[in-house]
Write a structure and sequence with these properties.
Elements: E1 26-30, E2 36-40, E3 45-48, H1 59-81, E4 85-97, E5 105-118, H2 121-133
Antiparallel strand pairs: 1-2, 2-3, 4-5
Helix pairs in contact: 1-2
Length: 143
C-alpha cells in the first residue's frame, strides 16, 4: 500500500480526507530575541531559543533529534514485524551545519546500534533502508 503526501490529501475514492495521512501543525509565537513558543496541533508546548539553562530547544538540534527518533520508530516497528528479538537498540545522529547564513545542515549521519538474541543483519539493513526508499520527498511551501 502506498500513501502519498499531498497538500490536501483525499481518500482514494475522492471523498473526504485520506485517513492514512496525518496532518501535523505547529504555531510559533515570537517572545523576543531568538525565543519562540510553540503549540502543536496535538496541544503540546515547545519553546525554541538559545537559553540552555531554561531548557529551550535548539531548532536544528530538534531536527536532528526528530530525524533520529522517526527513523528509530520506523526501524523498530519493521524489526518487530520481522520477529527479530532486540535486546538493545540505539540510534545516534550527527549533523554538520554551516556557520554562516543560511545555516543549513550540510551532512547528517545516522548510526543504528542493534543487539539481540535473534537479529539477522540483512533484516536490520532492510529495516533501515525501507523508510528511506519507500518515501516520497516531502514538499515544503512557505506563505
Amino acid at each position: 500500500m502506498t500513501t502519498r503526501s499531498r497538500p490536501f490529501p483525499r481518500a482514494p475514492d475522492g471523498s473526504g480526507y485520506d485517513s492514512l495521512v496525518k496532518i501535523r501543525t505547529v504555531s510559533l509565537r515570537h517572545e523576543g530575541g531568538q525565543r519562540f513558543a510553540g503549540k502543536t496541533g496535538t496541544d503540546r508546548s515547545i519553546v525554541f531559543g538559545e537559553a540552555v539553562a531554561t531548557n529551550e530547544y535548539s531548532p536544528v538540534e530538534s531536527i536532528v533529534a526528530s530525524l533520529a527518533a522517526c527513523t528509530a520508530m520506523d526501524v523498530i516497528t519493521i524489526l518487530e514485524k520481522k520477529r527479530q528479538v532486540i535486546d538493545r537498540y540505539e540510534v545516534e545522529a550527527r549533523a554538520e551545519q554551516r556557520s554562516e547564513y543560511p545555516q543549513v545542515l550540510t551532512l547528517v549521519e545516522v548510526t543504528h546500534i542493534v543487539e539481540g538474541t535473534v537479529v539477522l543483519e540483512q533484516a536490520v539493513r532492510r529495516a533501515i533502508d525501507a523508510p528511506v526508499s519507500n518515501r516520497r520527498r516531502p514538499r515544503a511551501r512557505s506563505s
